[in-house]
Amino acid sequence: MSDDVSGNAYAGEVTPRQAWDILSGDPSAVLIDVRTQGEWAYVGTADLSSLKKRPLFVEWQHSPSMRVNPDFCEQLAAGGVGKDAPLLFICRSGVRSKAAAIAMTAHGLAKCYNVSHGFEGDPDSSKHRGTINGWKIDGLPWVQG
Length: 145
Known about the structure:
The chain is α/β, with parallel strands linked by helices. It has helices spanning 16-25, 37-42, 72-78, 95-106; strands at residues 2-3, 9-10, 12-14, 30-33, 45-46, 56-57, 61-62, 67-68, 86-90, 111-115, 142-143. The chain has one domain (2-143): Oxidized Rhodanese, domain 1 (3-Layer(aba) Sandwich), CATH 3.40.250. 38% of the residues are buried.
């Protein structure tokens, strides 16, 4: 179990490749993409079709206000996630997804992981994402549009 700087516990950080391995090895594992609808549509999403799975899409924050989604817990539950299933939260860079993993752990879900570096990864020296780390740069399957 990991603690963030404020002391909130969650299952921990996993790299995108570790997330893929968990998704591949555990039929109950779920990838939960907490980015916004615009990001899903224009940046792309993880492609889990070779695993016979699909990501669960639930916004952690609504654009453009970026206020936390007050219905997040209910929408997650409606997605059919198991209480003891490994839940792998992913966003653009790992910030929103970490907040979601911490919140859902506090809500009673046992195995909430943050996918470190997220879908696009950390910005490089030119402030561009997708060149250093993250799901896409790790060569994991993804689709756009």
